[in-house]
Amino acid sequence: MVTLDCSLLDPTTWLVGGVLSLSALWWLSTRRPSGLPPGPGLALPVIGHLHLLSSDLRAAFRTWRRQYGDVFSLYMGGRLVVVLNGLPVIKEALVKMADVFSNRPHMFIMVRITNLKGLVSSSGALWKEQRKTALEILRDFGMGKNVLAEKIQEEVTHYIRAVEDHHGAPVDLSTLTQISVSNNICSIIFGKRFDYDDPTFIGYMRMLEENMKAIGASAIINYMPILEHLPGDLFKVKLVVSRAMKFYDFVRQQISEHRKDRSQHTEKTDFIHAYLTQGEQLAQSNVENTLDNENLQNSISDLFVAGTETTSTAIRWTLLFFLHYPKVQDKCFQEISDVIGSGRAPSMQDRPKLQYLEATIMEVLRRADIVPTAVPHGLAHDVMFRGYVIPKDAIVLPYLDSVLNDPEVWGDPDNFRPERFMGPDGKVTKPEEFIPFGIGRRVCLGESLARMELFLYLATLIQRFRFLPPGQEPLPSLEGIMGFTISPAPFKVRAIPRY
Ligand code: HEM
Fold first, then answer.
1. What is the helix, strand, coil percentage profile of the chain, to 5?
2. Which of 36, 169, 305, 398 has an alpha carbon within 20 to 30 A of 495's alpha carbon?
3. Is the CB of 444 under 6 A from ligand 1?
């Protein structure tokens, strides 16, 4: 006679059995099937290889590239991540096989915040239409042309006055720089700038800054969405999403104010009016399109976020490099003195003559490596790449750091040496490996705006001030903190007026 073993009904046994079965399931799902790119050993249940990573991915990625080659893979939670290293591999994927590699992956936080609409997190036909529309509008507003340069110069004048107000006392210029840089994008998208002491605007800027920092801690939810169901908000996901929603409220308010005075505004005075006009024209001609409110709201937020944090971080990096490498600062100042003197502000017409400054800006973008993993890419379908199988739902990271800081390419990548970008004729040379804005179809949409801003802000700052450390204490580290971007840890400088 068969008897039922009562231990099977014991809750502890059920629990242990349950945990073991779940672990087995996870193990099976995170076991690297044959054909995938190689990578670090067996993935652990639930966490995959996350235990091997710190918040700063750079050290682990460099080691794995050495061990496994230019295409390696790992599991972050249950999600397969494929890391592309070195220019030939990144170029082959993003340029040669652009039809396959130009999507964005479905990532939990992105889906929650953006619904995969707008510019940065959309894919396929929707993304193509949003990107084309945004680029056309930005070009109309003079991205890369003099009209926009004059607007930026006006903003720089306000910024310089605000720096002067500190009278050479030690100051952390982060918030001021962020607000000023974001004003350039605000002029384009909203048609107005905000005063540096506008409490509402400062509030939004702080909120976005906090989100940039918190997004590192929340990123784990992208790989283990199950954690969302834990009580409380351990990974700050709810906080990050609710801050993003508050920012959307602000953007929506700006859009509805624009909608209210549409009757008076048929001309394209700013991005919102231009986008609305384009949408109306397409609708009148019965052309199906994606130019709706949600895409407008998201595209504006994308331009604002992508255009503020990156460029202001690059300006702060430059000041920090100047503290560590005062001779570079002196050389930039000398060049500006020779070419412009002190009687007028630098303009875009001076750019071809300020070759050392140009090389310095390139060296900042290379060495600071502000967006090291680019924005994650996704795939249009399963693909065979360099002999490996990469499934459609993998996250692909074009690891820009592997190019920008590769010893094989630059020899001494850790040194800050603008001369590496100067040819024997004293003119700037741009090696193919200089890719801080990414490459391929999803290359940074704001590159020419960013280059124009960096030139005008830095040329004017260097002309007007000498940047010195606050005192005798050791200089702030050049290590950088990894969040959405790699940014310098907070630091103070003294901006001593030159004249
Ligand atoms: C120093 C400044 C900047 C750096 C280093 C930078 C870098 C990057 C990088 C690496 C990407 C990802 C490319 C990829 O996914 O393969 C990107 C995307 C993007 N950037 Fe920038 N960026 C900067 C400034 C700006 C500015 C000023 C704007 C705004 C006008 C902007 C708007 C965007 C947008 C909208 C995307 C997404 C493009 C798409 O998905 O199609 N960026 N940027």
1. 55, 10, 35
2. 305
3. yes
Q: Is the CB of 243 under 6 A from ligand 1?
A: no
CA of 169 to the centre of ligand 1 (A): 34
If you measure from the C-alpha of residue 425 to the centroid of ligand 1, how many angstroms do you get, rounded to a whole number?
31
* Euclidean distance between CA atoms 121 and 114, whole angstroms: 7
Under 8 Å between Cβ of 312 and 457? no
Query: Model confidence over 144-187: pLDDT tens digits?
Result: 667 789 899 999 999 999 999 999 999 999 999 999 999 999 99
Domains of the chain by range and CATH? 86-497 (1.10.630.10)
Task: Inform me whether the pLDDT recorded for 299 exceeds 80.
Answer: yes
Distance of CA 181 from the midpoint of ligand 1 (Å) = 15
What separation in angstroms does the CA of 159 have from each of 8, 166, 429, 467, 487?
A: 72, 12, 31, 15, 21
Instruction: Give me the pLDDT at residue 6, please.
Output: 41
pLDDT of 5 over the 60 cut: no
- The CA-to-CA distance between both ends of the chain, in Å, stands at 102
The CA distance from 493 to 272, in Å, is: 38
CA angle 474, 477, 483 (to 5 degrees): 150
Q: Under a CB-based contact definition with an 8 Å cutoff, are residues 237 and 228 in contact? A: yes
Q: Is the CB of 378 under 6 A from ligand 1?
A: no
pLDDT at residue 12 in the model: 67
Q: Give the residue-averaged pLDDT of 373-398.
A: 97
The finding on whether 357 has its CB within 6 A of some atom of ligand 1 is no
Query: Taking 70 as the threshold, does the pLDDT of residue 16 lie above it?
Result: no
Token pair of 57 as six digits: 């991915």
Report how far ligand 1's centroid is from the alpha carbon of 374 (Å). 8
**What distance in Å separates the CA atoms of residue 184 and residue 192, rounded to the nearest whole number?**
9
Candidate from 310, 315, 396, 434 with most ligand 1 atoms within 8 A of CB, to mutate: 310
83 forms beta bridges with 72, 397
- Helix (H), strand (E) at residue 66: helix 58-68
- Distance, in Å, from the CA atom of 125 to the CA atom of 112, rounded to the nearest integer, reads 21
Residue 190 Rama label (left phi>0; alpha psi -120 to 50; beta): alpha
- Which residue owns the Cα nearest ligand 1 atom 6? 437
Could you tell me the two tokens for 318?
């430059």
Q: Does the beta carbon of 159 sit less than 6 angstroms from any atom of ligand 1? A: no
